[in-house]
Structures are given as C-alpha cells and as structure tokens.
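Annex B. Sample input.
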Amino acid sequence: MPGREQETANLATRLVAACGSVIWLAVAPGTVAGVIPWWLTGWRMAAPAPSWGIRALGAALIIAAAAVLLSGFACFAIDGLGTPAPLAPPRRLVVGRVYRYVRNPMYLAVVSAVAGQALWLGHLSLVLYAAAAGLTMAAFARWIEEPELLQRFGDEYARYRRAVPGWLPRLHAWEGD
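Annex B, continued. Sample output.
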C-alpha cells in the first residue's frame, strides 16, 4: 500500500499548498494589484473618462491577467506541491501550464492587471505605478529568485531558463528537453 499512502500524502500536501497559495494570493498580488491601485485612484474614473474602446481593452487585460495569475498559483499547489510564498516554496520546479510559455507569468499578470486598470480608469498614476512595480519584480526575479532556483534545482532550472524566456512569452509551449 505504499502507493496509496503516497497518493494520500500528495493530496494532503496539495491541499495545504492550495490554502497557503490562496493566502499568498490575497497578500501579495492582492496588495500590488488591488490595494495600492485603489489607494492611488479610489477606483474612480479620471476626467475625462477613457473611451469605451480603451475601457474594453483595459477590461480584457484585467480578465486575462486574472486567468494567468490564478493558473500560475494553481501550478504551484498542484505541480510544485508548494506556494509562491518564500516561506513555503514548491518542492518541485514548476514548469508546466503557463510556465511553458514564460518564466514569470504571475509577475506579468500582476503588472498587466494594473495596466488594465490604468486603461479602464484612465489614470496616468497607474501607468507609472505599473512600470515601477514591473521593474521591481524584474529586479527581484533576476537577483533573488533566479540564483535561489538555480541553487535549489540545479541543471533542471538551468535548462528551463535557457529554453523559456523570462518576460516575453514564447509563441509555442516549451515541451521540455
């Protein structure tokens, strides 16, 4: 019965990881893409209001960003048996689903959500904030996350990093080596 016991242990690990991921989703992206934009704008429309076409583009960007963000979080719990939070990192390198196209889909999703809000509401402050947040995330990914992932996952991460771009998604999914 070791197979059954391992299955049960993996399910329990995934459930704990899912709960931790939901908490981290509320804390990190919730603050960056929710609380701070609200603080900057009160989510009030700028005057003059953007055109309906610009607002529709903003809404589409927000919806797409939310889908990518939720998919990325699910990958950590299901595939990585962990969370994106530094205190409970994944046990396995996460390279599936949205991570087959780009190494930093969640950072891109958060910045895209803020950019979508900028288009929807018509606030330049959100464009500037999205740029600053994006630069901060890029620096964190480059100087903190990547060395840590290379240390934890070694050649597996090095191969992945060579094949999948960090910021500009591939047109076709990476299939592994």
